[in-house]
Amino acid sequence: MPPVAEFRTASFADLSARAFHDLLRLRVDVFVVEQACPYPELDGRDVEPGTRHLWLEQAGAPVAYLRILADPDGRRRIGRVVVAKKARGEGYAGRLMTAALAELGGSPCTLEAQSQLVGFYTRHGFSVDGPEYLEDGILHTPMRRDTPTA
Predict the structure, then answer these.
(1) In terms of pTM, does the model score above 0.70?
(2) Are 78 and 68 in contact (CB under 8 A)?
(3) Alpha-carbon separation of residue 122 from 27, 113, 116, 131 (angstroms)
(4) Which of 15, 43, 131, 149 is the most buried (most CB within 10 A)?
(5) What is the DSSP pairing of strand 127-128 with strand 133-135?
């Protein structure tokens, strides 16, 4: 039985160098290596004051991650949702999405879903917000989650 995955959250200023390295390693392992998408992973958004990093850690290593960004228009954006290959199927992405949405407290937010994951995000209250497009050889779909109405 694998160790329990512990939830972590931090701003960039609160991340240790080791934690940031390990989070980037997870992102690069999946997005760049596994999905064969050479792109600039370091986009400068990780260090912005409004960015929150959320992850699950097992035995001191991250196994799932996402970040919440504050876009210039005031809308929040969820991105870089990733689960290590060895940890898939454990519900970790859902657990992080639930935590991210709780942190947003009902604020509207957007994301750019890999198209095969539209159903996953729909279950978290997102809806398609534009046409599908190709980025780095992978189909993506813009999605949004509006402020819930009372």
Answers:
(1) yes
(2) yes
(3) 23, 10, 12, 16
(4) 15
(5) unpaired
The set of residues, in sequence order, having a beta carbon less than 8 Å from that of 39 and lying 6+ positions away, is 31, 32, 136
Condensed to tens digits (0 to 9), the pLDDT of residues 99-149 reads 999 999 989 999 999 999 999 999 999 999 999 999 888 999 999 998 765
Amino acid at 66: L
Amino acid at 18: R
d(CA 65, CA 149) in angstroms, rounded, equals 29
Average pLDDT, the chain: 92
Pairing of strands 61-70, 76-83: antiparallel
